[in-house]
Amino acid sequence: MTSKSFEFAIQGGQKARPLTFSADALVCCGWVGRDRAALQAHIDELAHLGVPPPTRAPIYMQFSTYLLTQDEEMPVVSATTSGEVEYVVLRSGNKLWVTVGSDQTDRDVETKSIVASKQMCGKFIARECWPMSDVSDHWDRLVLRCWITKDGRRTVYQDSPLSSILSPAELLENMPEPRPDPSRGLVLYSGTVATKSGLIYGDAYDLELEDPIRQRTLRAAYRVSVMPQHI
What we know:
The chain is mainly beta and 231 residues long. It has one domain (4-226): Fumarylacetoacetase-like, C-terminal domain (Fumarylacetoacetate hydrolase, domain 2, Alpha-Beta Complex). It has helices spanning 36-47, 107-110, 114-119, 168-173, and strands at 4-10, 17-23, 25-30, 59-63, 68-69, 73-76, 81-82, 85-92, 95-103, 105-106, 123-125, 128-131, 143-150, 153-161, 186-189, 204-211, 216-226. The strands form three sheets. Strands 1, 2, 3, 4, 5, 8, 9, 11, 12 and 15 form a ten-stranded mixed β-sheet that branches. A five-stranded mixed β-sheet has the order 6-17-16-13-14, with no helix packed on it. A two-stranded antiparallel sheet has the order 7-10. It starts with a strand and ends in a 5-residue tail after the last strand.
């Protein structure tokens, strides 16, 4: 698979440090809730759109790295796509970083194939990250948030501590074979937390990963543009 290079600013200390990361593999996880009731609520949420329930949890889906983007505009071919805030692990050898991103998904295609629905859309990733070692001792206290803008109205869409979903160690440990080469760059999307209002096809997304212990936050935002089709 073709590698794709990204530039990040590692936040920590008095000055940000640059990180050039080569993404050689992209894996998106799903059905990652620790609380079975909350997990079932998310399964039911998607079932309303006709998405079949999983045969295992969590699930792991490998995708083309060309889907990864830090662009602030996400072009899509359908008005029935939506994003979802996730923590994103960057792994290169024995080094780990964490950032925030969104797994944009075509919800119409998802009713036919969850893998195809995710391959249809880009995977947004922020430009800043933290060393995993900075947050590992208080991981469950971190908070994922997403604000969604629809028809000019901005509302809180998701807001949940990371104690609600599986940790990076659990996701990496349970990854099925064949696994991506550990010596190469892996981008791992965590899977998401439940929404507050049901799925919305947003026009824009504001993402946040908050560390209340160190009193700092990673933020990123992107807007969605539906490309006109003449067929």
